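Pilot study result, target chain (103 residues):
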Amino acid sequence: MKSKLTKEETAFLIPKIQEVLKTGEEWIDEDLHHPVEAIVGAVLSISGMKRRTSDDPSYGVDGFETNGWQWDWWQQFEYKGKPYTLSGSGYHGGHSFSLACND
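Predicted structure:
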């Protein structure tokens, strides 16, 4: 399984994520399907982006959660003090990135 997005995939994704950071408007692409590690790595390439810490990180990865057998997952990020969530479905495909509740 690939662990990095291609230059073309990254060039498509990063402006979508940056638009959410700028406007707060959620981005959803139901047809996009990238491996978790690859898309999370691309998001982390944005200067100032970091994983949110967790008291009990799933799979030893801060800010990562999954519902297991259904293959849905969520990665929590922080950017300029605001929380964001990247999510996807390993079964159905699709990704979204949005401002998250600050809990």
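One observation from the pilot: The chain has a mean pLDDT of 90. A full batch analysis is planned for the follow-on phase.
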